[in-house]
């Protein structure tokens, strides 16, 4: 006799007061402004923002916390909620405690991988933002070759 595992998942929506959900993401500057508190973090944090078809924020979550110089994130962590909520798009955001706005080689590789996985899942990666004490960097604007054509 075979053993079968069954996973039951229940999402419950509750109404909360939140200044972030419902905001329309219409530019990298808007994303950076909404998540500007990341510049004060002393460890790298990776956030995924789930968007509806009008690019309104449905939800956001911290998917990983690293150390002062690196972070480990599995792509499934970024797409899980988007898939469950049937969201068509996400934005990835992480900070650089060092203040650097330059994406590392790992940042670029990971962005390209996310864009490919998103294309395969039909969940568009709108942008990958780096936030630091010196400002923000939209990889969609500065490293557009990492994203698949529309």
Sum this structure up briefly.
This protein is an alpha+beta fold. Helix content is 25%, strand content 24%.
Pick out its properties.
24% strand; five-stranded mixed sheet; single chain; alpha+beta; 150 residues; globular
How would you describe this protein?
The protein has 150 residues and is of the alpha+beta class. It has four helices and five strands, in the order αββαβαββα. The chain has a five-stranded mixed beta sheet, with helices on both faces. β3, α3 (105-121) and β4 (124-132) form a beta-alpha-beta unit. The longest helix is centred in the last third of the chain and has 17 residues, at 105-121. The radius of gyration is 16 Å and the shape is globular. The mean pLDDT is 91.
Rg on CA atoms, Å? 16 Å
Count of alpha/pi helices: 4
Task: Give the helix level as a range of percent.
Answer: 25-40%
Low-pLDDT ranges: none
Mean pLDDT: 91
Give the neighbour order of strands across the main sheet: 2-1-3-4-5
Strand content: 15-25%
Oligomer: single chain
Distance between the termini: 48 Å
Q: Strand count, sense and closure of the main sheet?
A: 5 strands, mixed
């Amino acid at each position: 006799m075979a053993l079968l595992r069954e996973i039951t998942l229940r999402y419950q929506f509750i109404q909360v007061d939140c200044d972030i959900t419902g905001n329309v993401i219409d530019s990298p500057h808007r994303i950076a402004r909404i998540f500007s508190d990341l510049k004060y973090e002393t460890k790298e944090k990776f956030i995924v923002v789930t968007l509806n078809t009008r690019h309104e924020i449905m939800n956001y979550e911290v998917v990983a916390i690293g150390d002062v110089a690196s972070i480990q994130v599995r792509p499934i962590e970024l797409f899980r909620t988007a898939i469950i909520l049937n969201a068509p798009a996400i934005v990835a955001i992480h900070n650089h405690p060092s203040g650097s706005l330059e994406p590392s080689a790992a940042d670029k590789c990971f962005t390209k991988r996310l864009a490919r996985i998103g294309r395969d899942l039909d969940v568009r990666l709108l942008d990958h933002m780096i936030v630091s004490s010196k400002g923000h960097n939209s990889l969609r604007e500065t490293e557009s070759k990492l994203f698949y054509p529309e």
